[in-house]
Specification:
alpha/beta, six-stranded parallel sheet, 2 domains, five-stranded antiparallel sheet, Rossmann fold, about 25% strand, elongated, Quinone Oxidoreductase, Chain A, domain 1, 15 strands
Length: about 280
């Protein structure tokens, strides 16, 4: 099969031909139909996540057809179309796994990072983390939902019932969350990089009440803010933008260092910061 593989951080992806392998116990072999590009893929390729000492096949928004199943697989049958997300394997026995918080498993392995991902003709996947997809969605439509959609909706839930919602960084996850938030009747305030007219136009076209530079204060105090931009300096900015008792959700896998900021913007106002990961 063909796969796009990176030998080391900073190097371009290379086309490599390799054996797709056979599914082991609990695994399925997928014929990849589509695989989205996530900001985390770029973090991996750019070397912003710890290197693993082995070549990486990125891609963790996989839509594929089950070609073969290993021993013990019950939920995935050959011919079924499934999606594979970032979280690709967990131990299943630790306290986190036993309490429905598998994403915190210390032994977790991630698709397109620890495990070969979907930038290939075929991919092996743990059947526990393969999800049947509704027929109403095409392959290209479903792929972004497997990370941008999942982490975006989880971040939105962490924001609670906030009526005025700020979104910092208006990319893949943000444009999905904005549509869900508007459907729920919330006001959306979009923060983009300075001069990014295209992102602002997209936000406004999706119903945002306002769109502006990430360093600018919003026209109205926010009840909650979600940070998709991997920029630590935006955390204190978002804390200042939310009302007393407001929430700031840091939704990315990677973020640059958060600078020091006055404790008063937390202690003096009862604001909180959360992570959905």
């Amino acid at each position: 099969m063909r796969s796009m593989q990176q030998a080391a951080a900073g190097l371009p992806l290379q086309l490599v031909r390799r054996d797709p392998g056979r599914p082991g116990p609990g695994q399925v072999l997928l014929r990849v139909c589509a695989c989205g590009v996530c900001r985390t893929d770029l973090h991996i390729v750019d070397g912003e996540l710890p290197r693993l000492g082995h070549p990486v096949v990125p891609g963790h928004e996989i839509v594929g057809i089950v070609e073969a199943a290993g021993a013990g697989v019950e939920r995935c049958a050959p011919g079924m179309r499934v999606g594979v997300p970032w979280l690709g394997w967990t131990c299943g026995t630790c306290a986190y796994c036993a309490s429905g918080r598998e994403n915190l498993c210390d032994a977790a392995r991630f698709t397109g990072y620890h495990l070969d991902g979907g930038y290939a003709d075929y991919a092996l996947a743990d059947s526990r983390y393969c999800f049947p997809l509704p027929e109403a969605y095409g392959d290209a439509e479903a792929a972004p939902l497997l990370c941008a959609g999942l982490i975006g909706y989880r971040a939105l839930r962490r924001a609670g019932t906030a009526r005025r919602l700020g979104i910092y960084g208006f990319g893949a996850a943000a444009h999905i969350v904005a549509q869900v938030a508007r459907h729920q009747g919330r006001e959306v305030y979009a923060f983009t990089r300075a001069g990014d007219a295209a992102a602002r136009a997209l936000a406004l076209s999706l119903g945002a009440a306002w769109a502006g530079d990430s360093g600018a204060p919003p026209p109205e105090p926010l009840d909650a803010a979600i940070l998709f931009a991997p920029v630590g300096a935006l955390v204190p900015a978002a804390l200042r933008a939310v009302v007393k008792g407001g929430t700031v959700v840091c939704a990315g896998i990677h973020m640059s260092d958060i600078p020091s900021f006055p404790y008063a913007i937390l202690w003096g106002s009862g604001r909180s910061s959360r992570s959905p990961t």
